[in-house]
Amino acid sequence: MIDINLIRKDPEVVKASMKKRFQEKKFVLVDEVIDLDKEFRETRTRCDFLRSQRNAISKEIGKLMGSGRREEAELAKAQVGEMAEELEQLAVRETELTEQIRVRMMQIPNILDESVPIGRDDSENVEVERFGEPAVPEYEIPYHVDIMEKLNGIDLDSARKTSGNGFYYLMGDIARLHSAILSYARDFMIDRGFTYCVPPFMIRSSVVTGVMSFAEMENMMYKIEGEDLYLIGTSEHSMIGKFIDTILDESRLPQTLTSYSPCFRKEVGAHGIEERGVYRIHQFEKQEMIVVCKPEESKDWFVKLYTNTVDFFRTLDIPVRTLECCSGDLADLKVKSIDVEAWSPRQKKYFEVGSCSNLGDAQARRLAIRAKGKDSGTYFPHTLNNTVVAPPRMLIAFLENNMNADGSIRIPEALRIYMGMKKTIDVPV
To answer: Each residue of 317-337: b (16+ CB within 10 Å) or e?
Structure first.
């Protein structure tokens, strides 16, 4: 949610940012907010005037009664009664206007960073940098499910019986590898100065609408029937929600947290061959990082966050690249976003394994997260989030890039301590 003062002072700036997102249909929201806000302020001014007049007349009533001017006092009482009735009606209207403005403000997208490339969808995202040499071995790299099945590491058929499509059983060394990657990611981020946290896996609707747009919520979140609770789609939701309705002392900024959680997603509209197996699924686990910081520090933290992911993947011998998300590919709350994509030797292309986002002060405004400094007063801090790693999708990149000609999987040195010092996962005889 943006600052309403920006709409009051320069609505064309807001519309220009919408145009970059190809959301001209939302121009009407800005115009409606301007009209509703004008009426709201006029209503509030009228209320303030009536209260002032009522108080003044109420004081006069006592004087009139004391001096025996009862008839004038009764007329004054009637006048106060009329004011009270009008105030009651205005209070109702003020509440209605506040809600109507809030609903529209929640749909107005954040102001894009000037550096964001303009494009309609993810096909127009811009490559920034590559790390590691993307190689294609001379031997064939099978589909990731085939690799796992050959290693007795996955059971999709049983999962379909128990839960349906989009679920899986990971087994044996593949299950162990999955857990090892998450444990390594946890320690990797702790070593970089982040505080480890395991958050709630369900959150209230007030947090959901604070961290994401309505469209995202409808497409992603599972609701718990009969309760005001949603299963989290990523731990960023509950991690940012941790600070709801708080005033942080500026000396405690930045807040740098790394969290583990399972994630649950509807994956509405998921389709296609690369969305079989464990690429697009309803349940997975993830190591995340979030930052709450001073506004002037958020650009630097943005670079630090996606660099952490790049460095993590490179320690596991996986080539990656960073991809700047274009204007049309950004969710409404995002100011700027960069995806980290891993190399797939089988597909001979990169695919997304993580996303880093700067949300400016949008989430802080929605959740009433404030910071206070000695000299700076109270303000809304910026929030950022980034994926460290999200297996089992990351397993696709890991298995393909570390597969030997005989079908065994090489375990990079950084991961061996979490795998009982094993150097390979061998194909069962």
So the answer is: ebbbbbbbbbbbbbbbbbbbb
